[in-house]
Amino acid sequence: MDPILIGATEHSPLVDFDPSGKLLIEGKSIPEDVNKLFVPLFEFASTIEAVNVTFDINLEYFNTATSKRLLELLKRLDANNKIKNFTVNWHYENDDEDSREMAEIYEECLVRANFTYKEFSGHLNLAEQRTATKI
Predict the structure, then answer these.
(1) C-alpha angle 29/32/34, rounded to 5°?
(2) How far apart are CA 111 and CA 74, in angstroms?
(3) Which numeric CATH code is attached to 4-134?
(4) Pairing between strand 85-93 and 52-62?
């Protein structure tokens, strides 16, 4: 299985999915073709064989189409029986209660996922932090 690395654009988030089980979506998600972004992620989620999966989600803004596909992606990960421990780290800005509430709705729709809510203030760039720890 190959990793998926998609750079962020003005309308699409950064995606960094590693077969080791470290998954990241970060940025703004209002893509013109949401399926083009998510279909490869669905395949990855259904076939990943990592025992431990940690999915960091840090979306400053996402539209309804992204919200629906994100839930589908989470459900596919949740249903993957090769994954024994599935953690979702939901990062949200301290004044963004809508984001937190959306994550809580996702959590209610899943069976095995463990959600952690990580509130922050200012700017958070998880991709930069991930790169710094690899060096």
Answers:
(1) 65
(2) 10
(3) 3.30.750
(4) parallel
